[in-house]
Design a protein that fits this description.
The protein is α+β, with helices and mostly antiparallel strands. The chain has 3 domains: 133 residues, no CATH class; 57 residues, no CATH class; 74 residues, Translation Initiation Factor Eif1. Strand 14 and strand 15 form a beta hairpin. Helix 5 runs antiparallel to helix 7. The relative contact order is 0.14.
Length: 298
């Protein structure tokens, strides 16, 4: 991806699946899509699902919150970049641990540590890597609150429709048919899943993640929890938990993932997405953007 710079999503997914099989992995049909979403959250790639295109992000280094001068590399990673940086900086490479067999491993996380950000910036610039400060905080501060889209027509007569169901044995899932009242619906058009939200007699355009979070807020469901683990310079730092079935929009996921540089982890027992090293202020901003209030747990 770093050498190609951009391309077609379907072609990339086929290549990712083929490479996984050469490593004795057996990815399911959705594994390459999940992997690409992980790559987006890590800041390595920008993904336009509507147009079916991807592009590698520029090579950048972002400061981790409460990380004592530790930065993580994101974006374009030419073959010799790590060797060049290792000759000039204190560098640590963390291989991802995969606990969910349905997910493909992402590239190793590369950390750099320095006592002088000015010197680090100089070394990075010499290798065409841009230092951008703390991207996690910057993204979180600019997040827009999810909203429903413009008015749209209802699904065509005879189109198979599913509606969002919250609670019960399946948690958050879709069931056949239209909802009894207001709610999120999805249906296929030319092989592509479209999402519409019904409010009274009106229909609105939406997308998968924003539509789900809007529906959860309408039901007063609280899906975001945060646990404090330490204080750094008077700021509470902890772990954020999001119930599975409620996928975060791309920028919200990126704000959380870039607090640690590690891909989203998943707890299969509690069925939660887990994000580490999250300042309380970032947790609040992300939660507010998806119409939630953080529940603080012990």
């Amino acid at each position: 991806m770093s050498e190609t710079s951009a391309g077609d999503i379907q072609d990339l997914r086929q290549r990712v699946t083929w490479l996984a099989r050469t490593a004795n992995l057996s990815p399911g049909k959705t594994a390459s899509g999940r992997w690409l979403r992980d790559m987006s959250a890590l800041g390595h790639a920008e993904v336009d699902w509507d147009r079916g295109r991807w592009a590698i992000a520029p090579a950048t280094a972002t400061l981790l919150p409460a990380g004592d001068g530790t930065v993580v590399l994101t974006g374009r990673r030419p073959l010799d970049l790590i060797d060049q940086l290792e000759a000039e900086c204190a560098l640590f490479v963390a291989e991802p641990g995969v606990t969910d067999e349905a997910r493909l491993p992402t590239p190793a996380t590369v950390y750099l540590q320095t006592e002088s950000l000015a010197e680090l910036d100089q070394a990075l610039s010499a290798n065409e890597v841009r230092y951008v400060g703390c991207a996690a905080r910057g993204i979180a501060q600019r997040l827009q609150r999810v909203e429903l889209g413009e008015p749209a027509g209802q699904p065509a007569w005879g189109t198979p429709v599913e509606h969002l169901v919250v609670g019960g044995a399946r948690g958050i899932d879709f069931a056949r048919g239209l909802p009894d009242g207001d709610g999120l619906c999805r249906f296929l058009v030319n092989g592509r899943q479209l999402y519409r939200y019904r409010v009274g007699g009106d229909w609105h355009r939406t997308e998968h993640a924003p539509g789900i979070w809007w529906a959860l807020a309408e039901r007063h469901e609280r899906m975001v929890r945060w646990r404090s683990e330490r204080q750094v310079h008077g700021e509470d730092i902890g772990t954020l938990f999001v119930d599975q079935g409620a996928p975060l929009p791309p920028l919200q996921a990126r704000a959380l993932v870039l607090c640690s540089g590690l891909p989203t982890q998943f707890g299969n027992t509690a069925r939660t997405a887990i994000y580490r090293n999250i300042p309380r202020s970032v947790a609040d901003l992300v939660a507010r953007s998806v119409r939630q209030v953080v529940s603080v747990i012990d």
